[in-house]
Input
Amino acid sequence: MKPRARRFAWIAAGLAALGIAAALVLNAFQSNLVFFFTPSQVAAKEAPQGRAFRIGGMVETGSLVREPNTLTVRFRVTDTAQTIPVTYTGLLPDLFKEGKGVVAQGSVGPDGVFHATEVLAKHDENYMPPEAKAAIDTAQKGMSMKSLQAPRTGAR
Amino acid sequence: MIPELGHFALILALLVALAQGTLPLIGAAVGTPRLMAIARPAARAQALLVAFAFGCLAWSFISNDFSVQNVAANSNSELPLQYRVAATWGSHEGSLLLWTLMLGGWSFAVTLFSRNLPQQMVARVLSVMGLISVGFLLFLLLTSNPFDRLMPPAAEGRDLNPLLQDPGMVFHPPLLYMGYVGFSVAFSFALAALLGGRLDATWARWSRPWTTIAWSFLTIGIALGSGWAYYTLGWGGWWFWDPVENASFMPWLVGTALIHSLAVTEKRGAFKSWTVLLAIVAFSLSLLGTFLVRSGVLTSVHAFATDPARGVFILVFLAIVVGGSLALFAWRASSVGLGGAFGVVSRESMLLANNILLIVAMASVLLGTLYPLFLDALNLGKISVGPPYFDAVFFPLMAPAAFLMGVGPVARWNQAPLPEIWTRLRWALGVAAVTALILPFVLGRWSPLIAFGLFLALWIFTSTAAGLRARLINSRRGNLFAALGANSPSYYGMLLAHIGVGVFVVGVTLVKGYEVERDVRLDVGGSAAVGDYEFKFLGVKPGPGPNYRALTGTVEVRKDGQLVQTLQPEKRIYNASGQAMTIAAIDTRVHGDIYVSLGEPVAAGEDVTGPWSVRIYLKPFIDWIWMGAFLMALGGFIAVSDRRYRLAVTRKATVPAGGAGMPAGAD
Output
């Protein structure tokens, strides 16, 4: 090969490698996006079946139940319009409390229960995780459209 | 009174910075030495004024002046002294003031160590730094004044976020900012070169030490942040691909590319435009990182909109700095030139390949970090991009880069014959491959990923050793010490930094491969077996702390019936905020950590003296991750101690013409 042809071959190989890298990156990106749904959307069956997603809202007061002798907990997540039962096995974060905001990642089983693989509460005490707040705000907006006297009980 | 003095000093600093940012620049353009001479005294005065303002803010924190809003929101009279000092940079306003202080400090350092530089260069560099400072001071004064008073004064402060009440958090932000802001020097040098149209090996030699020091500080800063996450968040993880972490990691990746590209520009006069572009990108990402973390945009894109003044200022400032410098680059890059040519297989081409891999890695991190923010800002839905994406993309990109790290230092500049590289490295390759195949059996479990990770790490060690050996033989000195002394500190710095990467890879591979994570429920007196260890839980006792109440658990760790260690993990509830914090108890050894943290009481009624949920983790070789990072930074500091950076650069710089065949030019 002439030097020029050889240089061209190297550049072509380089570009091909870059192209493959870009394709791999975008593919990994596509398959690892985690979408967020509010309890109302989950109740309306808008969430995907069998794929992991996130839900957010408030932990309903009085809903936290521990199964004896295991680390499994059950609680309900509410956006004040709809509630979704959640089950999780493991340690809950320090900031997890009834009546406070929470975001959980997992999927809905055939029983309609959200099986969380991860419970997130990385925010500080003063404000909600943004997703949880958005879920409650959206639900509140939906309800106040139905009735002007909608109760504004959402914690914020 | 003292807060007002600080406020006044900031206003004065802004005026001085305006003078520093404009007059010397004009002087350099029209060739007026008197205007250029303003740069040094102005930069020093500005630095001292900002330092004074910072001192005033620190004093307000130390003396518990709760009439200052910033103090009332981020401190408390019960807060121990060292955290009151750290609280100075714990808030948005305070951290921006710290940023500006660092910028002043770096400018001051440039005025001290620039005696050998041409006056025009000094004037331009300090002017650009002055203009950056103008941006930050305006931002502080217009939207984020740290000295705002509270009327009426608060009786008590709201306390510093307990997560930040930690020794790691005292040092992490200043070191990280040292790194971020340090890239402003490389940036200013790049802009000065573009303005002057002169970019040669001498320019690269001036820029290199500044860039390397900044990079070393950034490395330590990131490592401290990672270590802090490991022991305070209570999950035992050391990297979460959280946007906050990514924000500091992206400038690091580009900074790593930059120090290698600068080496080529200094030694070979090649990569000129590329180096300038990297300097611009590294600093732009530092700015982006600061603002991502500090503007609240990550908490919620919409929180950004609730304070439009800040948001708009940030976007405009970023647009001016990034857009302006890229426009200058587009306009002037042709005057700088591309630099020398080089062969397809040469040290230059390998460094270029490494640069491209680092940049692609940075771009993929940027995509994963910003895309969710864009979607959210445009109200197209909320998504998150989790660690699986970053893992899937990052490790395949970094593996070839790690492999090239072994080949590059032994390859010749300009044209590197492949047979020669093979002769030099075949033993290194063989030893690394065979050891990596066998070692996982010894460690307990063989998997292709563990073997591959170990191979990369061992390859870095063995190829580094092979390169050093070739150098010592080539130096033809009689005894070993003379031969060792014939190499420059910057060469040894490079070796050490590369070994640091290898140590880091060992840590990552073995933690990912062999870690054991168990969440268990333990009765008082009950025990759990995890790995080779037996953990006996002796219950939890309440006790007081300086500004919190503590629940301290006791866990005895036994191996083969022998007591190894008694661990005391804690749960703290802070008095001022009522916030709970988990303090893990960690037994650290060279071959790994035993990590125990308390979950919550699981008995009915949350009786703290009853059974608890407990996290028990075994993290083999995890400390090698941070040790690797410290070795990298140490390598950087050693490289900078090289005498040639301190020599007077009066002679006209020439690209070494005859050195093409010399393999002994790795530094």
